[in-house]
């Protein structure tokens, strides 16, 4: 009420001023700046502040070609525009004192005075209006001297654009000096051309230009162009619609009943509806002359319904023949929303080119994923391969060594808050801890069981459940975070399809390092020589002066130590729980079994095969990782049929049996 | 005239007598038929323990006698449970659905009843359709056949693949473990048709017997379990007592030598593997109606490893050892993990058995493996005076049973 009064007053003032000037010149009071005039002309709309009606007001400001326009729009959108109640003028106001606002004139940009709170009415645009103002602002911001504002403008264009912005965007490309922004502007211009340019040839040219581009934005622009809806045409498809293809009812895309529902025949009555209709029309123990007790038979129900339909109490059902006739008489077609056939054809071509390209890149992405998974399996399995290959011992507690490594990393992080330092400390420490645990396990348990491999399996299983429960007792059952340092936090993005997280690259590098270290130890050191000798023939090695017990101990320690480091690596991207080792143990076994024991290259190949297989199966059925694991294991069981000793099997005497 | 089977194996008679005595004592003590000092829930625990003993006997057959450390027998056990669970759940749900639909003014069509059952059973996994594998769920007889047929068929296919390619020893263990993992992961999926990780539930209610209290039902299952254990035990003893058993032990001790003697090692192994899988299926079919619920977690590889642990603690290569191991370890586990064991206050730390029992079990298992490869069953050797001849080194256990440690190293 108050507001209306103000407006009325303001209009009156203007009116009187106008009346006062009896010259022919209709220009309003020259005291007012040009922008203030524009605002006053639209004062009513501005104050009303309704999304439906505000359009002309924003346009008036934006198209005023005044320098102050962007200032007004920004102030307006920021809710800093106020109307002075006493004379209806608009100002940018800022609260500088207790209920005192400093007013800035839009035209001059000067501070024109102060005003108490009471005399000012804030203009409060809602989010819808702010969106409109933002769009209007874009054309100003595109040429703003501040690169940040230009970037904001482009971002806003990429999110929300309309046909009107195409022209200002095009105009702003030429003066753009920043090469990155210029490239973005050109790209956005192409996309807007596809969507909004009235010239068909220009659109097609733009579509062809963007064909094969991997950006999600391109697909987001093209997909609406090729979106279709299925329509039913009783009299054939008219010429003025853009038909994608015609359909026959009864296909997967258009089931028969759905197709029938689109025609204007009598509605189909579902069995549920029949039951409801019968239920509603029970008349003295029978429906349509059929006793209720007989209605457990579907045929009797239909007969009862037919009787009701004949009596007119329920709507009739179409017979199968009716449905067929109705379907035959109707043409079903998928119709593009986009009317121009040339544009849709070009868009379809572009999308199929994009799909090919995306598919290719997805294969690349999948390859990278498989590689990173393979390196994880390799890290987890390499220690197992050493102990299994050299000593013929299955260490079921291997997974728990991985867990110990991960928890070591967690504990170190509690002590050393700097993530980079803590990881650098944690890796050797995890190695030390699990090396010691491995040596202890070998000395205390496994040493006594070298002739009983199956019982080693069970004894180490006992150790495994004991260690798991111990970890649960110490650290609790909830997952503990092992935070990676910031420089490992990101991802390397090649394009919108291919990206790989830095942690996974780091794990890949770690796996490579361990491959190198392991090869060096085995081929270039005394320990490696002795280990190989013991692998081939423990008795003969002993005769040559090698102490097999010591070699076994050190080998087992080495294998366990690597498991500890794998634990830190795995902990970086998975949650650390007492069951973390269990998640990897079976895959590690598989890796070793598939790869073949006693050969590092076998383990590498095994890890590669299992990683690729896992990701490959996941790709066929991405929604279901459980199924992927199931099929992978089945595949491995079948694989073992053909190479029972793994990909690389030891030959000759070294093979054991 | 040869001595009869039972005369040659007096331990069978002893075992059957002990089992019979046990059954009678429990019956007398039950709430249904006697004094009531054995609670119904404890009767169920005992009945379940008997089923575990049966699957342990099957495990002992493959591991203790044929040297195949299978880590898949609990999967067969679970499959048997699933098969009977399907019938129990289907019929039970049918009763409920039919009762609720009977109140409607119009009698339901058969299709509506089936749809109603489907919605009831598969609602939790967002489906109402009956998967193909439920095709026989309305027939008790067919499902009972499936109880032995499904685990048997799986074991037959898997065993054929594995034994044919001469996968032995540790490799075979890992492969069976992989099979178990694959099966449990498959069942964990919602679209596996067996309700994903919800599993089958409400199995303790027998269809059509609503008015009979669980006191009686639990006793029936207890008797059934005892009978199954007795039959299974005698069957297993019969298998291992004759020439067949000798070949099995020969395979365990030196597979190549038996093969060179002209025996079809793979055939023997495959037969035993399949038969024990069927026994495991029967045990599971008796176990899960007493447990009331089955879900894929029951099938996880760790359960099969625990089964091996029971048999090892009880003593491999002797059937009563397997029974003792399963009964002892599972009952003691129930005691400790059920919170009945008193906490031990060390002053600075309070040992709660729920937390520490697994550690104790794991370590004692290591100790048994190291110091008592014969398991608890070995204690009976001391009583019966059946001493081994003094040979060199420690006993190697069943996988290289004919040799002692120092002989093997030569």
TrEMBL record, chain B:
Pfam families, A to Z: BPD_transp_2 (PF02653)
Coiled-coil regions listed: none
CDD domains: TM_PBP1_LivM_like
Membrane topology label: Multi-pass membrane protein
Highest taxon, organism lineage: Bacteria
Keyword Cell membrane: yes
InterPro entries in the record: ABC_transp_permease (IPR001851), ABC_transptr_urea_perm_UrtC (IPR017778), LivM-like (IPR043428)
Transmembrane segments: 71-90, 140-163, 170-188, 220-240, 267-287, 293-312, 319-336, 356-383
NCBIfam families (UniProt xref): urea_trans_UrtC
Identification of the protein by name: Urea ABC transporter permease subunit UrtC
Species: Maritimibacter dapengensis
